[in-house]
Amino acid sequence: MKIEASIDRSLALEDAARGVRSLLLGAVEDHLLSDVDVGLYLSGGLDSGGILAVLHELGRASLPAFTLGFRHPLDENAQ
Q1: What are the tens digits of pLDDT across the range 32-79?
Q2: 46, 23 in Cβ contact below 8 A?
């Protein structure tokens, strides 16, 4: 799939937000189609939080979720 990008400056913010939301919902729904169990990796970023919100809206928020932590000085969760 090839995605063409262009800037439409006449598009209202609400319309742009509605378009992004529609694309995100479609992408998440497409990735839920699987013959094996699916889960969610929570990276701590805005993207995984947004995907979780979409899953909740789709009634699929009960998926298994996973996250990782590292014992490294650059890891924000390291103690």
Answers
A1: 999 998 898 888 888 888 898 899 999 887 889 888 877 766 656 655
A2: no
Q: Extract the tokens encoding 9.
A: 């400056």
Under 8 Å CB-to-CB from 66, ≥6 apart: which residues?
A: 39, 40, 41, 42
Which residues have CB under 8 Å from 58's CB, separation 6+?
25, 28, 29, 32
The amino acid occupying position 40 is L
With beta carbons less than 8 A apart as the criterion, state whether 59 and 32 touch: no
Tokens of 24: 């995100």
